[in-house]
């Protein structure tokens, strides 16, 4: 398959079953009208093969909830969240937003996500109006292959007859293209603590800039822990592997559309005690730094812990 056809096939979806439509539905929160000292919203959960809510989904929903309480001229620039309990995909999620502070330039919000009356995710986010200031950015690494030169997620997973592989291949709203190859079922190439992942929504998203920012938070959780696995030669298919996000921090530097190709450059500086830390930088195709990400996760492999 040539690059043009590969690209077209990766983006073609049945609108009735579109994974992007499912993501957009999850990010369309309902205002309950209830008011205590907080704003209350609800949203559905997306189905996942393991029955647990995808961390990127609840993080993005929490971001959307916070955005609903901030003036339109202020954009999110940072969030710091903790995953407290596994979420159940069979239940909706309730979000409470505490309007902690509104200053002359910044606003601060706390979002909490609840199921069964207990929090599953807790986040504080900061928003700022458009202010001038000093500007610089890290450079995008040179020599990375272009996304058209890499197999789509569907192509990489096509040979694997497994329910999770079929879900990853056809039901995620983003195409992920790894350089070097993915660590879905084996580690290709050198065992190094870094990788790059090209990502793009499978179909165009609405023009709402806040939606694109939230969708970027959604996608940022997909592969951020993979450098921890890669450097030790483990894949997601390693028997009895246990991995889960513990916390997630993200800084939005500049606006970018998530339905254009973005390059997510990731590395892991440390792993110890059953936990691993990964950091990431997200660039546009022409090298503009869009966002930075950090996440610590639980990563337990049989034989390496008590």
Automatic annotation (TrEMBL):
Residues 44-128 form the Acyl-CoA thioesterase-like N-terminal HotDog domain. Keywords: Hydrolase, Lipid metabolism. Signal peptide: none annotated. The keyword Lipid metabolism applies. Pfam families: 4HBT_3, Acyl_CoA_thio. GO terms for molecular function: fatty acyl-CoA hydrolase activity. Residues 185-298 form the Acyl-CoA thioesterase 2 C-terminal domain. It comes from the Bacteria. InterPro entries: Acyl-CoA_hotdog, Acyl_CoA_thio, HotDog_dom_sf, TesB_ACOT8-like_N, TesB_C. GO terms for biological process: acyl-CoA metabolic process; fatty acid catabolic process. It catalyses: a fatty acyl-CoA + H2O = a fatty acid + CoA + H(+). Belongs to the C/M/P thioester hydrolase family. PANTHER family: ACYL-COA THIOESTERASE, ACYL-COENZYME A THIOESTERASE 8. Homotetramer. This is Acyl-CoA thioesterase 2. It comes from Microcella putealis.
